[in-house]
Amino acid sequence: MSFVTLEVEVPSQFPAERVFKVFSDFDTIAPKVLPQVFKSIETVQGNGDVGTIKTFTFGDAVPFTSAKYKVDALDVSNNSYSYSFIEGDNLIGILESISYHVKVVPSSDGGSVFKQTVKYNCKGDEKPAEEFLKKEKELYENTYKAIEAYAVAHPETY
């Protein structure tokens, strides 16, 4: 099976633990701050730990309608999280799955860096187009910024 990897890095002024805590509430925050991208995110099986299955319903700003995702790994002490989209039209007909590994690492200035590795696992030889990957990367970066802005606006929670 062939694959394409995309690396996303976004610096933050906030400590790694705080950034990770905010992203732990992604299911709640994302539909509030980006309803045009994430209409809803629902847990259909599990409690958030490894093996949990969630259903995403996408908004009008993206060319997909829905997807199913599974939590692959969760390591709160290392601020890391892995998950995979395993079903849905976001697999664009040519992908077996899309695997994500998120790690928030401390930076020397007291802030952190949100690092996300996205692996597009292709069914055959066809790979996602460069333009598609560019839009995906922009979406990931914009999503991060919107969620961080939400945390800034809600300091009592985050």
UniProtKB/TrEMBL annotation:
Keywords: Pathogenesis-related protein, Plant defense. GO terms for molecular function: abscisic acid binding; protein phosphatase inhibitor activity; signaling receptor activity. GO terms for cellular component: cytoplasm; nucleus. The lineage of its organism: Eukaryota, Viridiplantae, Streptophyta, Embryophyta, Tracheophyta. Gene3D superfamilies: 3.30.530.20. InterPro entries: Bet_v_I/MLP, Bet_v_I_allergen, Plant_def-hormone_signal, START-like_dom_sf. This is Bet v I/Major latex protein domain-containing protein. It comes from the Eukaryota. GO terms for biological process: abscisic acid-activated signaling pathway; defense response. SMART domains: Bet_v_1 (SM01037). Pfam families: Bet_v_1 (PF00407).
